[in-house]
Recover the amino acids of this structure.
């Protein structure tokens, strides 16, 4: 089940034509991952400080369907798609929030693959609490996340 994060496109995220610069979708993917963990009562920052784990991106894909524009309200849907050993795959959908009676419009969709590592980039296991929470979300079991929505007015490039 996806966790949804809402952002409003800032002027700084657009190019000269008022269209979101393509690399900003990857920043939104990161925001979605951080908020997904937060929705589960977990923090990306604690993964690093308390467990000495980092999650470097080893593969990223984004398929662009329609452009986001300055001042659009955008929804970032994020969910864990694969958890195998030290490999985690997250999937994303970026949607323009519906206005009036319209439906949300698909702007982009993609995936990122991460390997759980220590600070020397040696593989390690994901802490049990994180793994259990992600597996519960993947199974779509009620009570853990559902379709939670988080609003953010800006996107951050650094996980919090």
């Amino acid at each position: 089940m996806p966790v949804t994060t809402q952002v409003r496109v800032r002027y700084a995220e657009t190019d000269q034509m008022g269209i979101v610069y393509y690399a900003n979708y990857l920043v939104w993917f990161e925001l979605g991952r951080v908020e997904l963990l937060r929705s589960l009562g977990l923090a990306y920052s604690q993964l690093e400080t308390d467990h000495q784990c980092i999650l470097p991106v080893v593969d990223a894909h984004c398929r662009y369907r329609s452009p986001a524009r300055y001042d659009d309200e955008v929804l970032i849907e994020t969910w864990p798609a694969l958890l195998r050993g030290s490999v985690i795959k997250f999937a994303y959908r970026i949607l323009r929030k519906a206005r009036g009676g319209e439906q949300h419009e698909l702007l982009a969709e993609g995936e990122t693959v991460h390997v759980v590592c220590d600070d020397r980039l040696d593989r390690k296991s994901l802490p049990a609490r994180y793994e259990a929470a992600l597996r519960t979300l993947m199974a779509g079991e009620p009570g853990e996340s559902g379709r939670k929505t988080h609003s953010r007015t800006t996107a951050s490039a650094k996980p919090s």
